[in-house]
Amino acid sequence: MGNEQTLASGGAQRGKIGQRVAYAFGNLGQSAFYNALSTYFIVYVTSCLFSGVEKGVAAKLIGVITSLVVIIRIAEIFIDPLLGNIVDNTTTKWGRFRPWQFLGGLVSALLLVVIYTGMFGLVNVNTTWFIVLFVICFVVLDVFYSLRDISYWGMIPALSSDSHERSTYTALGSFTGSIGYNGITVVVIPIVTYFSWVFTGSHAESQSGWTAFGIIVGLLGILTAWSVAFGTKESQSALRSKAQKNGGPLQAFKALFQNDQLLWVALSYLLYAIANVATTGVLIFLFKFVLDNQAAYSMTGIIALVAGLVMAPLYPILNKRIPRRYLYIGGMTSMIIAYIMLGIFSNNMIMVFVALVLFYVPGTMIQMTAILSLTDSIEYGQLKNGKRNEAVTLSVRPMLDKIGGAMSNGIVGFIAIAAGMTGDATAADMTAANINTFKTCAFYVPLVLIVLSLLVFMFKVKISEKMHDDIVKQLEAKLAAGEIESDDESSADVEDAPAEAAGSGAAASGSAA
């Protein structure tokens, strides 16, 4: 009997490790995909897509495409909670989230390849039809990518209800996500130039080089999404199985707007996301047009990659001793110093690299704190409103990333045109006004946003590890009393409970300080 129990325990442990590996692998391709879509697609548009078009016309088309991308992504922001509601109400024998990993990964990857081909060369045949079909393709791509992203992070509360166990899954996803996102930064130029040479005989960027890049990212996207679809299994905790039905879209939006802690965390993260993505989206211009050393840009990806590899596994260890609140504040302080250095020393390669270390090292801590705070707000909302909206709540983070991505696309396009950083332009063509325009958009405006993000988090975000533990205990007590079973149950009797938990959470934070 003892041996059988030992074998069963060992098998369960191996299964748990296998599921963690499969889940972690998923964000490798997902983050690479996001970087290719939010950052390098616009770089491709401004540098290569319209290379066969007259320069004046090309500038107008670049403006049209970047504007369309911003408009499309902002419009789809309001769709994400609806997509989250669809995921929340999905019922299949494979679970709630895994089917969307399969479909979302496949469709979005195929369409990414299509847009990186210039719609199979249509851009050089008929620009009007190209723009029409591009809009349709990009909208569908973004929707299916969102379904993949929402279902991925929505799985975390389905895997565990413990805050620290959730931090393990979040750390794993962030660890591989850092490899995927920053790995793309390392390899994008070598891939594009290599395949450009293979197909054209020249190391200069070409359509064929960017198409090969799109195909590689698309294949990685499919493989990693399917690792989650086939390598994980959703569990049913008592709180999940006894949760009320999620309702329709109106109830989903109502649940979001009634969850005050969700909204404050979201605002703080939104300000950070816009600043972060806007800056990373134009760093390639810093090296190409200011420092006149585009080859050194790959070091940016290496710095970010190493920072992510170190900080992601370190985060749960630090979080056991340091409350998430102080990790977030420390990370923001580091970013503020980095922005000041980048603004002052943008012509000094060594100082730029020092600043980039300070910029990238805290990124993982900030993002994981935001994700975990959003995840813990699920139980906060369940206690306050009587509704457990997992995917809808966690659709907020990709929705915020989309806003950041849309702003980044707009900033990159604006800088490329306003500063003359398009087509065959070089560092020698840059004027003092060009450089000042670049520094203002890339460093000074994002610095203001980071400061605002820090202030919101410090003074408005109350949810903490202690507060979440208190909320879970209250929910379990209500479950034991039979109060979390009926869809007709009024949520009025729990309106004051989160406030009490918030008070204990705030007190805990004060004692920790």
Automatic annotation (TrEMBL):
Transmembrane segments: 21-45, 57-79, 100-123, 129-147, 168-197, 209-232, 262-289, 295-314, 326-345, 351-374, 403-422, 442-459
Biased composition range(s): Acidic residues: 484-498
Gene Ontology biological-process entries: carbohydrate transport; sodium ion transport
Keywords assigned: Membrane, Symport, Transmembrane, Transmembrane helix, Transport
Gene3D superfamilies given in the database record: MFS general substrate transporter like domains
DNA-binding is among the record's keywords: no
Keyword field contains Transport: yes
Composition bias, Low complexity: 499-513
GO cellular component: plasma membrane
Record GO terms (molecular function): symporter activity
Region (Disordered): 484-513
Protein name as catalogued: Transporter, major facilitator family protein
Organism: Bifidobacterium angulatum DSM 20098 = JCM 7096
